[in-house]
Specification:
Layout: H1 9-12, H2 15-27, H3 32-42, H4 50-58, H5 62-80, E1 83-93, H6 119-132, E2 136-141, H7 150-162, E3 164-165, E4 168-169, E5 172-176, H8 182-190, E6 196-197, H9 205-211, H10 220-224, H11 226-232, E7 238-241, H12 249-267, E8 273-275, H13 296-309, E9 314-317, H14 323-330, E10 336-338, H15 369-378, E11 382-384, H16 388-391, H17 396-404, H18 409-426, H19 430-444, H20 450-465
Parallel strand pairs: 1-2, 1-10, 1-11, 2-5, 6-7, 7-8, 8-9, 9-10
Antiparallel strand pairs: 3-4
Length: 472
Amino acid sequence: MYDPKSAKAEEFICHEEIEETLAFAEAHKNDRELIKSIIEKAKELKGLSHRDASVLLACEEEDLNQEVYALAEQIKKDFYGNRIVMFAPLYLSNYCVNGCVYCPYHYKNKTICRKKLTQEEIKKEVIALQDMGHKRLAIESGEDPVNNPIEYILESIKTIYSIQHKNGAIRRVNVNIAATTVENYKKLAEAGIGTYILFQETYHKESYEQLHPTGPKHNYAYHTEAHDRAMEGGIDDVGLGVLFGLEHYRYEFAGILMHAEHLEARFGVGPHTISVPRIRRADDIDPDQFDNGIDDDTFAKICACIRVAVPYTGMIVSTRESKACRERVLHLGVSQISGGSKTSVGGYSEPEPEDENSAQFDVSDNRTLDEVVNWLMQLGYIPSFCTACYREGRTGDRFMQLCKTKQIQNCCHPNALMTLKEYLVDYASPETKAIGEALIQKELANVKSDKVRDIVVERLDKIKEGSRDFRF
């Protein structure tokens, strides 16, 4: 029985409920009256149920689809403005004991180069990331209790936060590691992490168990209930995600929205972020071996429907996607992207030798961070390196309250301008700096409060003179 308040995975992600939802959506995919009513409901900015959103995803009426796309773009502006948060992944280790058939880290793979960064190597990687201009990292690691125990992760987080290089500093470390215990989540919370991110990969239990034939990750319930344990352990912000291409996309779409509904129902706080990765080629992984791949049009529609269904959540698209694809979905609700990313273990401080491939997947967008920042600004977006909410305690229900009432922009917009100014002064190429300075001057007019605007102008001057890390 479907119960969003249940703590049991198979009750808050109910297979029968998803099947009924997909059947309902298929039966009503041309029901214009119903679809219009769902769009009107979405305009109230309070989100949609997994069933209503599934109808929009299935919709075959092109004019109504265009309404959904336009609404998704407007909702993103209403909640997050024209800011795009920047981050980079940092892979600590690719040692793994799992047998996941879609991931090159699987323990049977004898061709991938196994690596684990020492703390000294982590320092070099972080300095290289700081020299690019990054302030926010997402650390990644394979699951291996011997090579990558929680103590190694905690030590690595401490190392990352300790490094001050010139004007560089990593101000927020998000963590994407395997499902673990409440006790370990408490340790991560005490270490000062930002968001705990864990991809479900697939919500279809039978497929999940087939795709994860061996290793701790085989346990569907333990994995699916991980975000609950993280929140019980004191982590306010959690991130969801599925790997599109493993199972039918409509099933995954309904599942991830049910997971968001569950977190709202049980904890009063939905997911801080939702990621939408697609399976990509990797060391011994051929994405064509999987039958559920989706084209760019379907991917764009998924992004738009997530945005109208969960208007408050941040939506992440990584360098798995091409420049053209990322540009398209930026207009449909995406609010966070990576830039200048390496998916190898190491590779920021020194290029990885061709015969030592350790990457989790092939990157599609290989541009530098400066090129990505330049491109975003030319599209009219503000690249934001802000981490103020996390550092000011605006997390969990406090963040969600501000976000859902659209008050968050009062802080985030000026903070984005100040962190962009830091980037322009410290790291930008001359062309990027010129574009950015013009953008900041233009955006100052959009700071609603005269008092706040005056403070921002004063702080922008101080940043130019050498001061750093202002925030509202």
